Amino acid sequence: MAEPITGISSMATRRVLAELVSRYERETGKRVAIEAVGGVDAARRVRAGEPFDLVALAQDVMIQLGAEGFLLSGNTVCLVRSAMALAVPAGTPRPDIGDGEAVKAVVAAARSVGYSTGPSGTHLLEVAKSWGLDPDGDAPRFVQAKPGVPVAALVARGEAEIGVQQLSEFLDQPGIAIVGLVPPPLQSVTTFSIGVGAKSARVEDAVALIAFLTGPETAETKRRFGMEPA
């Protein structure tokens, strides 16, 4: 039996990729194995030379990897766009996040704020600093989820009073309630891209899978997982 098409992705796209890959396997008979890890770890492993056929990470990281020669030139395309949301523990009051000032007040008043190692977490910290908050000096209150751990887990366990991450990471997670998409300036839509690894031994198969994953027939699945087709 042929070896599977291999890939690595960040946690943010793991569920939508898992469902679409399963469909692709049924339709083509080909096997695919995409490992989902924290985005920082994924980029590190690609740079370390692991020979993945596919790489799916935040667009800015993919641009860097391409410039550094770790992706095959001319084959990287946008996969999905993912907006940020705020969640609280299930059964607790849902705060008002109707506008920028309201969500600023919620973040400033929260006893603990969960955030990720990915682009949503980076953006949260930048906005918090622009609001006059000090995430570095107030580290015990700003709780970063470990790589590969969803912010939803911190919220569900009571380690974070509120959590901010991509909506797709909160959907169907136990123990939390999604308050809604956050407004600007806290809102930042992350684009995730997918491309062929520079060390791929199955470039043709990888390109065919990318074409499927970015095709119009995948739009409904992406929306169901809280993302928009890119």
Ordered list of secondary-structure elements with their pairings:
Blueprint: E1 5-10, H1 14-28, E2 32-37, H2 39-47, E3 54-58, H3 59-67, E4 77-82, E5 84-89, H4 100-109, E6 113-115, H5 119-130, E7 142-144, H6 151-156, E8 162-166, H7 167-170, E9 176-181, E10 190-196, H8 203-213, H9 219-224, E11 228-229
Parallel strand pairs: 1-2, 1-3, 6-7, 6-8
Antiparallel strand pairs: 3-10, 4-10, 4-11, 5-8, 5-9
How many β-strand runs? Answer: 11
**In oligomeric terms, what are we looking at?**
single chain
The domain tally reads: 2
- What gross morphology would you assign? elongated
Examine the coordinates and then state which fold CATH places here, giving the name of the CATH topology of the largest domain: D-Maltodextrin-Binding Protein, domain 2
Runs with pLDDT <50, length 5+? none
Order of helical and strand elements: EHEHEHEEHEHEHEHEEHHE
Side-by-side strand order of the widest sheet: 2-1-3-10-4-11
Helix content: 25-40%
- The gyration radius over C-alpha positions equals 18 Å
Which percent range describes the beta-strand content? 15-25%
CATH superfamily of the largest domain: Periplasmic binding protein-like II
State the helix count.
9
Compute the separation of the termini in Å.
34 Å
Mean pLDDT across residues:
95
Q: Tell me the CATH architecture of the largest domain.
A: 3-Layer(aba) Sandwich
Largest sheet: 6 strands, mixed
Just give the CATH class of the largest domain: Alpha Beta
Broad structural category: alpha/beta
